[in-house]
Amino acid sequence: MRQDLPVAQVLAEYAIEHHFGVKSSQTIWEEHLYELKGFYEIFGEGAVATIKAGASPERNLWPLLPRLTVSLARSEGFAPLTNLRSEVIAIADGCATVMCTSDDNLTEMVLRLNFAEERLQINVKDGLRTADDGSEGAARSYASVMRVVRDHILNGVLEVWDWDQRRLLGKCDAFIPLNIDLEATKRAYDSIIRNFENLAELRSKSGNFGGDQVRSSHHHRMTRHQTALKHASKDFENSGI
């Protein structure tokens, strides 16, 4: 009888899913419906059906998005990616592209809502930008953004929240790094973060704007850090993108 238990378990799981409509965890993972669940509600069934068909709703039917926060699961959040202005900027090929911008206009992040494949696609390598205006805040923002990138590479789970409602709208699967020296990459990002935190302190003591010397030093750091990261990481990609 003990030998029959695996067969009985499989039959029970099949019955529960197909006769009672309770999906198994494996089915839920395979469908990935949780990745865009909240955005389905915002766009509406009609618009989503149109997008999935490869077309675009009329521009006046594109939804107004709430202010969004992009974070990592189990983190305390990251100031530059909190309470962002967000708008749909394109709909094509089964996807809606969303631009998120901080109120100081220094940080931008692109979200790709791939309704055709039921995927929330966020590329922190190419779709996340933060600018420098020479201020203390800009240096701190850069350090914080680099923490997001570092922690995401270290098997992080990106989440998108409705800031006003404190409601989870979607999340990606955990990042799976490939062809990467994790230790070297982490050291490179840790160095970047420390240096920009130090730069923020320097700017704070010099009254936010430190003139050409601070800007020149910042440019030198940027070039050096980009070179270090290039050598530390051959390539990395998210298996969910």
N- and C-termini, Cα separation = 45 Å
Taking Cα atoms only, what radius of gyration do you get, to the nearest Å? 22 Å
- Indicate the structural class: alpha+beta
Percentage of residues assigned to helices: 40-55%
Description:
It is a single chain. With 241 residues, the protein is an alpha+beta fold. It is 41% helix and 18% strand. The protein has 7 helices and 8 strands. Strands 2, 3, 4, 5 and 6 form a 5-stranded antiparallel sheet that branches. Strands 1-7-8 form a 3-stranded antiparallel sheet. A hairpin with a 5-residue loop joins strand 3 and strand 4 (107-114). Helix 5 (136-153) runs antiparallel to helix 6 and helix 6 runs antiparallel to helix 7 (211-232). The N and C termini lie far apart (45 Å). The model is unreliable at 20-32 and 209-241 (pLDDT under 50).
For this entry, give a set of tags.
alpha+beta; globular; 241 residues; five-stranded antiparallel beta sheet; three-stranded antiparallel beta sheet; disordered C terminus; 18% strand
Summarize the structure.
41% of the residues lie in helices and 18% in strands. It is α+β, with helices and mostly antiparallel strands.
Question: What is the strand and helix layout of this fold?
Answer:
Layout: H1 5-18, H2 25-31, H3 37-43, H4 45-52, E1 68-72, E2 85-92, E3 95-101, E4 107-114, E5 119-121, E6 128-130, H5 136-153, E7 158-162, E8 167-171, H6 182-205, H7 211-232
Antiparallel strand pairs: 1-7, 2-3, 3-4, 4-5, 4-6, 7-8
Helix pairs in contact: 5-6, 6-7
